[in-house]
Amino acid sequence: MNEHVHTVSIQFDSKPMKFIMSTATPLLTPRHVAVIGAGAGGLVAARELRREGHQVVVFERGEELGGSWVYTSEVESDPLGLDPNRKLIHSSLYNSLRTNLPRESMGFRDYPFRRKEEKGRDSRRFPSHGEVLMYLKDFAADFEISDLVRLKTEVVFAGVGEGGKWTVRSRSVERECVDEIYDAVVVCNGHYFQPRLPNIPGINAWPGKQMHSHNYRTPEPFQDQVVVLIGGAASAVDISRDVATVAKEVHIAARSVEEDKLGKLPGHDNMWLHSMIDSVHEDGAVVFKDGNAVIADFIVHCTGYKYDFPFLETNSVVTVDDNRVGPLYKHVFPPALAPWLSFVGLPWKKRR
C-alpha cells in the first residue's frame, strides 16, 4: 500500500504539538458520505471519514459550525415548545452556562482541550460555553474540516432507496430543495431541541406562566417571582441558582430526593427542595407530593429532551420508542442498515 504522511504543527501553551495527517491509500472503496450536523459529533465523524479516504459533505442548518454549543439570545415563540409551527431554535444554551466537566475530559483524545492564554479566551478549568465553541472551531480549522461544511443548509429528507443508496434532500436560503445521492449517512443532529414535558394533573387550568429550559437564557424575566423548577439534573441546578439571584422564591421539584434533604437549601435564603409535583390548581397553587404547597407565578420545566429525526426515513427499521432509539449496535449502527447508516452522539438511551 502506498502511503504519504505529512504533519500539522499546532501551538499549545507555547509547546508545539504535531498531528499526523495520513493520506494512505484506503483499503476499502472510497464512499460518498453525508454527515448531518456540524457539532462535536459531526466534526469528528467528518475528520475520521476523510482520513479513511471517503468523500464527505457535512450539512449544518445553522449559520456557523458548533451545533449545540452555538449560543443565541433568541428563544422560540412558544416557551414550552409545543407548537409544531413554531420557528425552531436549535440552541438550548443559557448565558451563564459553564461546563460541568473539566476541560481535560471535554476534548478529543488526539486534540486536547488545552487552555489558551489569549484575549477573548476562557482559561478556567470549567470554561464557559463560548470557550467550548472556540475549541470546536479550532479543531475544524486545524484539521481543515470547515471546507466540508455546508452552512445554512437543512436536511429535510434522508432515505434509503434502490440499490441501498441514500437520497438526501436539503434546502438552503440560497436555493430550493436539492436531491443528492450518497452511499452512507451519519446522523449527528443533536438532541437538545425538542422538549420533553411531564404530565401534571391540573396543568391546563393552572393560570401561571410556563417555560421549558430550552428557552431559558437569563434570569431577568423571573424578577420578584415565585418560581417552581422541575428537575434534578445539571441544567436544573444551574438554572435554579441563576434564577434565585432575582426571584422572590425558588422551589425545586425533583425525583429520588432523600427525605432528610427536603426543605430549605443550606446557603440560600430563597431556595427550597421538594419531592415531585402532585398537582396544580386554578388558584395558582402547586402541591408537592411531600405535602407542601406554594402559590407560584412560574413553572420552569428542566425535564430533558426527546430524540427526534424528522428527516429520516428507514421504513421503521429504526424507531424512537419511549425516547429510546433502536435497535442500535453499540448505540451507533442499526444492524439491518449497517454500515450505511450510523448515529453519533446518542449518549446512553436505546431500545434493548
Keywords:
352 residues, alpha/beta, FAD/NAD(P)-binding domain, 2 domains, six-stranded mixed beta sheet, five-stranded parallel beta sheet, 22 strands, globular, disordered N terminus
Specify Rg, calculated over alpha carbons. Answer: 23 Å
What fold name stands as the CATH topology of the largest domain?
FAD/NAD(P)-binding domain
Number of helices: 4
Beta content: 25-35%
Shape: globular
Secondary-structure blueprint:
Layout: E1 5-12, E2 15-22, E3 32-36, H1 40-51, E4 55-59, H2 103-106, H3 129-142, E5 149-150, E6 153-160, E7 166-172, E8 178-182, E9 184-187, E10 209-212, E11 226-230, H4 234-244, E12 249-253, E13 263-264, E14 271-274, E15 277-280, E16 285-288, E17 293-295, E18 298-301, E19 312-313, E20 319-321, E21 324-326, E22 341-343
Parallel strand pairs: 3-4, 3-9, 4-5, 6-19, 9-22, 10-18, 11-12, 11-18, 12-14
Antiparallel strand pairs: 1-2, 6-7, 7-8, 13-14, 15-16, 16-17, 20-21
Model description:
The chain is an alpha/beta fold and 352 residues long. The chain has two domains: 228 residues, FAD/NAD(P)-binding domain (3-Layer(bba) Sandwich); 93 residues, FAD/NAD(P)-binding domain. It is 12% helix and 28% strand. It has four helices and 22 strands. A six-stranded mixed beta sheet has the order 10-18-11-12-14-13, with helices on one face. The protein has a five-stranded parallel beta sheet with strand order 5-4-3-9-22, covered by helices on one side. A hairpin with a 4-residue loop joins strand 16 and strand 17. It is globular, with a radius of gyration of 23 Å. The protein starts with a strand and ends in a 9-residue tail after the last strand.
